[in-house]
Amino acid sequence: MGYLKWLGHAAFEVELMGKRILIDPWISNPNSPVTLSELSKVDFILVTHDHSDHLGETVQIANKTNATVVSIFELAVYLAEKEGVKNTIGMNIGGPVKLTNEIEVYMTPALHSSTHGSPAGFIVKSPEAVIYHAGDTGLFSDMELIGRLYKPDLALLPIGGYFTMSPREAAYAVSLINPRAVVPMHYNTFPQIRQDPEEFKNLAESLAPHVKVYVMKPGDVLNLPIK
Predict the structure, then answer these.
(1) Does residue 55 register a pLDDT over 90?
(2) Taking the model in full, what pTM does it have?
(3) CATH class entry, domain 2-224
(4) So what's the pLDDT on residue 227?
(5) Is there a contact between 104 and 98 (Cβ–Cβ < 8 Å)?
(6) Spatial distance between the Cα atoms of 143 and 174, rounded to a whole number of angstroms
(7) Torsion over CA of 62, 41, 150 and 227, rounded to 10 degrees?
(8) Which distant-in-sequence residues (6+ apart) come within 8 Å of 198 by Cβ?
(9) Tell me: the pLDDT tens digits for 101-127?
(10) Which stretches does DSSP call E strand in the chain?
């Protein structure tokens, strides 16, 4: 059985098919329930874009654990050539890229900005669960296509506003993606993105009442597959 653990902000620890995956590991975020010293086993690190609150401690974790970093091509080249990361996979919008025989990833568009390459989201697909981490993004109509094509069991959506969708836009995104469940992220880490996740929950449930909304606290664990 796999699991998803929220590490605060947009950072998650996911275990699928016995492999441990970190997504956007800003472990030093003020709400993080773990420290770098506690991350001893990591197989893959997925980075949606290179802003410091998403790239986070990717370099330190990769060097410590020998994890493979998966990101947009230009960022992967930068991490390998300038930061000394040994194992990288540089991909682009589309996919799939097979991480193992049972786990593959697809890169999705995200409406945001970055320095190295384009910002993105990830679909992580395995027999245990299909997870959509939207990265930092505004609302866009092709979220409906992402939902129809990949049929995610679980969507991880930013709700903080200012830099990304706010609760209103994110709730509408839920109705477009139509996942089995959704977890809000990227809020209440700093003043500009202060939001009430219960507002998002109420809006999402009104627009898509069949979708389960999990408002997690940093450190909470959600078992996979979603029941």
Answers:
(1) yes
(2) 0.98
(3) alpha beta
(4) 83
(5) yes
(6) 9
(7) -150
(8) 215
(9) 999 999 999 999 999 999 999 999 999
(10) 2-6, 12-16, 19-23, 44-46, 68-72, 88-91, 94-98, 104-109, 120-125, 130-133, 154-158, 181-185, 212-213, 221-224
